[in-house]
Design a protein that fits this description.
This protein is of the alpha+beta class. The chain has one domain. The chain is built from one helix and four strands. It has a four-stranded antiparallel β-sheet with strand order 1-2-3-4, covered by helices on one side. A hairpin with a 2-residue loop joins strand 3 and strand 4. The chain is elongated, with a radius of gyration of 18 Å. The protein starts with a helix and ends in a 6-residue tail after the last strand. The mean pLDDT is about 95. It holds the Pfam family DUF3301. It comes from Salinimonas iocasae. InterPro entries: DUF3301.
């Protein structure tokens, strides 16, 4: 095995691990948003990841992810909220005014 093959092998492993990390973050976001909606008596309609990039905030390198989620306060209207996460930790949740 040459050095080039070894480097390529490690890059493939690193890419796979980061893919699983981002999937894990997305699953955690879905759970966190679901809990948030349940706590505030909102109906969760959908969750989508908008953006993911590396961040150097809070003293370590981790993924900064932004999610958009749709919810309803009264079962008839649809609103879009936003959640920002670093790794698996929610740092910001923004909701527009909505009808109850």
């Amino acid at each position: 095995m040459t050095l080039g093959e070894l480097v390529l092998f490690f890059l493939l492993i690193l890419t796979g691990l980061q893919f699983w990390r981002i999937r894990s973050i997305s699953e955690q976001a879905y759970l966190q948003i679901g809990r948030y909606c349940e706590t505030h008596h909102l109906q969760l309609l959908s969750v989508a990841r908008k953006r993911t990039r590396l961040s150097f905030k809070y003293g370590k390198i981790d993924w900064l992810s932004s999610f958009a989620f749709e919810f309803s306060g009264n079962g008839e209207d649809r609103y879009t909220g936003h959640v920002d996460m670093i790794g698996k930790h929610v740092i910001r949740t923004q909701l527009p005014p909505y009808k109850v």
